[in-house]
Structures are given as structure tokens and as C-alpha cells.
Hints:
This protein is an alpha/beta fold.
Amino acid sequence: MPTQLRVLSDPVEEMSGIGDRPVILFLDAGTGKGGASRSLYYLIAALDRTRWEPHVLLLAGNPLVAWYDSLGVSVTPLPGIPRFRPGERKNPIAFAHFVWRMRHYPAVLKAARKALAGRAGLLHANHENLALTCRWLAAQLKRPWVCHIRTTLVDTWFARRIYRFILRRADRVVFISDGVAAHFEKLCGIQAGKHCRTVFNAYRPEADPVEPLNLRGDPDRQKLRVLTLSNITPNRGIDRQLDVAAVLKKRGITDILLVVCGGPQHRSLKPNAEPGYYEQILTRVEEEELGAVIEFTGHVHPPERALVACDVLMKLGRENVPWGRDLIEAMTFGLPIVTLGTFETVVENGVNGFIDAEFDTNRVVGHLLRLRDDENLRQTMAVANQRKAERMFAPEASAAAIESIYDELR
């Protein structure tokens, strides 16, 4: 379980007599395994709870319930929370699914009213996929609301409408990086405005050591273990990992192991359905005999087990997003980064990792070989990453920035 930040020794006893604290009602429709849910946990853990009373509405079965219990933070598990996130295609179908999920809205509204209990406070949507639901809740409860923008939507008619809806309707908008803010403005076609802020995600690893993930092969013969923390989807570029693995195999490089920690995000339940992306990946590994240079572990919880077992983090997604929970955690653990993109706010090329504007298999392999062969470079990048992570992702700084937004809405 992660380090508890600003946790009172006896939350009930020490907080008695301050029941007039404003309630911050957080909405989280994640599974608890992704970066958005974990980022919310670290934010709440660092909040000054002598001033604010957090309450989290989340999905039943979310494993972070136990984490919140350890903090003394109230949670309400729900069977469903309506959410809508535009994708690259099939958006009318996705919106129809959202309408179907609205059958859960009365339960969400009831839980929100009970949590607020007529007290002052506000709502905080932990992801843009909750913007519609949070806006309706805020209107019915007559409370201001904050929307956290955590991803970069593919440019579609639906994406532009959702972003403009958030820009117009949310009382405050929070971006997790300058790149996310720039993408938001581009799709909106309007400058974000003074009510929009960039606040980096918070993270601090647990104080006690974690048991490293047990990986295949002999670690003494593998000079470099290269980690990818990602769901197995096309936009995350897992097929590009196979391209890299194929070059390593062709060159006879046996002392670099690629490790992919994550599972398929969507799998067809229809009988005799065409093989999905995940199945195509596994088939290619078998047909090209890449098993010796790449290992798929499935979802790993907590991800720190994978981080302490590996030497480098590689992110080769198709979106221009050289940031995110995987990079934050890897930097904190001192892993050099190999990634793609055009924003160097988080990863500075040659300083704490390597970042290329476009994907080139041989160039990526070259970065890995350089990191394998130059221990001093790995150590220099490790120190640079740890220092930068402490400066950018310190939970206290992130919480203070968010609290200043809450103060504006009181």
C-alpha cells in the first residue's frame, strides 16, 4: 500500500469539531487499476483534511477502496457511474452506451446528496469521461464543479463538442500537462482561459520495499530489462514493441528483455469473432518466435513490482503524449525513459531519457543499446529523473495547487 501522506494518527478523533469543512465530492469511474484512479488517490492523500473533507464516489470492486479506508477517507461504491469518452470511431454507439448507463444516475445522485448532506462543497470529476454526469449533478445539487482533463481525445466532431462543453460549463478545468492543455485548446479552437490550470499528477512511492516482479530468464544474463506499463491497445503501440523485438532477434541480441505489463482493454465476447488486437499480438509473437526477447506479464498490481524489476521504461504510443502515470512512476524510481513525442516538458532528450518525434525501429533499438552499454549514462539519467520527479510530482505541491482552485470556488 502506498505511503500515507498527511494521514492523521486517528482521523476521527483528531478531526472532531471540524464538521463544517467543505465536502469535496470526487467522481471516479475507473477500475482502480489505471493511472487516473491512482493519481486521484495520491492527490486525496496529500489534501489538507483539516480544511477539506473528501468523499469519493467510485465503482464497486475498485481495489483502491482499501487504500482510502487506510486514510480514513469516506467512499461510496456504486454499481455504475455514467461516463462518455469520445474515441476515434463508433462514437454514436459509445454515446448510446452512455445513455444506457444513465440508468445508474439516480443512485449516483442519491449518493452525492447523502455525502454532501446539505453542507458547502463542490464536485470534482476525475476524468473528462465524467463531464456530462458531473455537470448534471452540479446543476441539481447547486454546487460548482471541477473537471480533470487526463487524456488527449482523437480529433472528432464528438471530441470537439465535449471539450467545448467542458470549457463552457466547468467552473474550473485542470490539465495534467502542458501538452494536454495545448491539445485541448487546439480542438476547442479557443484559448483555455483563466479558469483552466495545469497541475502535474502527484506521486510518492511506498516507504517499504516491494517484492520485484518475477520475470522469465536469468537476470544476470539480461543486462537491460525494458518495461512498458500499458493496456494492450493499438493507440498504445504495443505492435511497435514487437517491431523492436523483431530487430533484437534478427541482430542476435539476447541480453535485452522487453517486458509488457498490462492486459487487453477490450475483448470481443461474440463467438467466432474476428481476432482482436490482443489476439493478433499473441499470434505474431508465436509466428515470429519473439518469445525469447519479449514477455507479457498481464496486469501487475501494484506496478511498483515491475518498476523495481526493470531498468528502463519504454513508451511507443501513437499519440503525442510523452507524459502520464507510467512515466511519472518510472522517473520517481530512476528509470531512464525511451518515448515518442514533441513535448519535452517531462522527458528531455539526452537528459533523463530519449524522445523522438517519430517512431523509427532502428533508432529505438539504438537508444536501448546505448543504455545497455553505458552504465554511467543510465546512472546520470536515473539521478536526473529522480530529482525532476521530486520537483514536478511532489504530492504536497500538487495538492496545494488543487486546494488553491477549491479556495477560489468557496
